[in-house]
Design a protein that fits this description.
The protein has 10 helices and 13 strands. It has helices at 22-39, 50-60, 72-75, 82-91, 111-127, 146-155, 174-181, 202-213, 220-240, 286-294; strands spanning 13-14, 16-20, 44-48, 68-71, 98-102, 133-140, 158-161, 164-167, 195-198, 244-251, 256-263, 297-303, 306-314. It is elongated and about 60 Å long. The N and C termini lie far apart (41 Å).
């Protein structure tokens, strides 16, 4: 696989990071991966930022029509929803191995987004373990901070650079990487009131949220999305977080809004909400999965004192 071939043995999961410098290396590395997969008659999904996607389409010429495409700046605006999309593609391939290019971190990502994307990269190794699949993840050496590249070596068992593939001696257990991503969440500027709620008060939570968002720059559709996300989060508090919780709402410096739920719950499964819940599951994390689909960024911190869930919504 690492020399450009897309084949694996049954049960293999391959997850290399591709370190590239400039467009020529990008097109050679990613384009070569895609062409090898197509030559082997294997399905390919390419999920990369729009400008990179356009260049790849052009370089692949007629082959581009055989590829499934997704603009990662839209699909992965919230890194927490990338994994479900990749798994959905793999699940549709029946008995064939899935070939995926996923570029979840690009220049311009905020620090909070980078942390959640790094968590995503680590969790891929858990979610795809034992599957016949390859997920190639490009990293822009010239445009990304050295800390991001260092984390890429921790989340990918192999690293490809300048046409060579090597095992990453820095590769770490996904749980360890996830713990390092659990940095304390910054407090909002100024005094933000807290709305406490308990069993039987979901209506009050909705009314409080609806009234507050009416004074923000969010459009009607986005206000509805945030209201639904807050409702799902509050319902989870009552069902799984000790029967009570608190809500804070504030405007962020980035011209968006933030909703935060705190309760006494725990998050035992780090993949909860990041993979599509089974329809047959009684308690399959549907609420948290929906929250990831609705919001532009979701941050979760779990500790001995309980759970913090922050939901970000951009006004644009």
């Amino acid at each position: 696989m690492m020399n450009g071939s897309a084949s694996t043995t049954p049960g293999d999961f391959v997850h290399p990071a591709l370190f590239y410098q400039g467009e020529a290396e990008y097109l050679a590395g990613v384009g070569g991966f895609v062409r090898a997969a197509l030559a082997a008659d294997e399905p390919v999904l390419v999920a990369v930022p729009g400008p990179r996607m356009d260049a790849l389409r052009e370089s692949l010429d007629a082959c581009a029509a055989e590829v499934s495409w997704a603009d990662m700046t839209q699909l992965g605006r919230n890194p927490g929803r990338i994994l479900a999309a990749l798994q959905d593609f793999a699940d549709r391939q029946a008995d064939r191995p899935a070939r995926i290019v996923g570029e979840p971190i690009w220049p311009g990502r905020t620090q909070a987004e980078v942390l959640e994307a790094t968590r995503h990269e680590a969790l891929i190794n858990t979610a795809f373990a034992g599957r016949r699949a390859t997920v190639l993840c490009p990293y822009d050496v010239l445009g990304l901070p050295s800390a991001v590249l260092s984390d890429a070596r921790r989340t990918h068992p192999t690293v490809m650079a300048e046409g060579k593939s090597t095992l990453s001696p820095e590769y770490a257990d996904p749980a360890s990487v996830g713990a390092d991503c659990d940095r304390p969440l910054p407090e909002p500027d100024g005094d933000v009131p807290s709305f406490a709620y308990t069993v039987g008060q979901l209506g009050e939570v909705r009314a409080y949220t609806e009234a507050w968002t009416g004074g923000t720059a969010l459009g009607a559709a986005r206000r509805g999305d945030l209201l639904l996300a807050v409702s799902e989060a509050a319902a989870n508090s009552l069902a799984h977080g000790g029967g009570s919780g608190s809500l804070r709402l504030w405007s962020s410096a980035g011209a968006g809004v933030v909703a935060e739920i705190r309760d006494g719950g725990r998050l035992a499964d780090p993949l909860a909400g990041r993979r599509r819940p089974s329809l047959a599951s009684v308690d399959g994390g549907r609420g948290l999965w929906m929250i990831h689909q609705l919001c532009d960024l979701v941050e979760i911190r779990s500790s001995g004192s309980g759970l913090i869930l922050r939901m970000h919504m951009a006004c644009s």
